[in-house]
């Protein structure tokens, strides 16, 4: 079990042990899911999203933004 503490303004520090096992970077978005009395956190992996964009024949920033939005929506649905 890994324990961390809620800080000022409800900030959470992600313990080093977790950071080493979960690919997460500063500024990355996190999906929060609440199930009964549990909080489930899931990172949105930009490396995975970048791979999706690279493998697609996209030609404009608008199309890239739309592809990323679809991947984020997919992650949100999976976390629900």
Tell the overall outline. Answer: globular
Average pLDDT taken over every residue: 77
Helix count, per DSSP?
A: 3
pLDDT below 50 for ≥5 consecutive residues: which ranges? Answer: none
Strand content: 15-25%
Write out the strand line-up for the largest beta sheet, numbering strands in chain order: 1-2
Largest sheet: 2 strands, antiparallel
| Percent of residues in helices | 40-55%
Distance between the termini: 24 Å
Number of strands: 2
Gyration radius (Cα, Å) is 15 Å
Structural class: alpha+beta
SSE string: HEEHH
Task: From the structure above, extract its key features.
single chain; 80 residues; alpha+beta; globular
Describe the structure.
The structure is a single chain. By secondary structure, this protein is α+β, with helices and mostly antiparallel strands. The chain has a domain at 27-79. 42% of the residues lie in helices and 15% in strands. It has three helices and two strands, in the order H-E-E-H-H. The chain has a two-stranded antiparallel sheet with strand order 1-2. Helix 2 (46-54) crosses helix 3. The two termini are 24 Å apart. The model has no long low-confidence stretch (mean pLDDT 77).
């Amino acid at each position: 079990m890994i324990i961390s503490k809620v800080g000022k303004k409800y900030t959470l520090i992600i313990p080093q042990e977790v950071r080493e096992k979960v690919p997460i970077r500063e500024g990355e978005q996190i999906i929060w899911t609440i199930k009964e009395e549990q909080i489930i956190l899931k990172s949105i992996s930009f490396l995975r999203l970048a791979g999706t964009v690279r493998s697609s024949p996209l030609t404009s920033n608008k199309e890239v933004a739309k592809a990323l939005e679809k991947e984020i929506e997919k992650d949100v649905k999976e976390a629900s």
